[in-house]
Structure formats: structure tokens, C-alpha cells
Amino acid sequence: MIGLLARVGDRSSLPLLAAYRDHTVLGGTAADTIRHINNRTTMET
Fold this sequence. Notes:
The protein has helices at about 1-10, 15-20, 25-45. The protein is an all-alpha fold. Helix 1 (about 1-10) packs parallel to helix 3 (about 25-45).
């Protein structure tokens, strides 16, 4: 799911990813995906 959100997610996906930030295994991937979405949506505006 995190990989899919990295490809097609937008700002509305951020709350879903926030739930994974503290996860011991998925936290790094979730944080990277949040940064990716933030960077992509910043460039679109």
C-alpha cells in the first residue's frame, strides 16, 4: 500500500501514511513516501 501511495497519492494520503511513521519496519518507508508526496505536490502548485 505504501508503494502505491508513493506513486499515486496526494495530500489526502498523508493521514494514512502518518499512522505508519512510528512502525519499526515500515516507518522509514512511510517517511520517505510522505516526503515524496510533499515534494511532488509542492512542485504542482
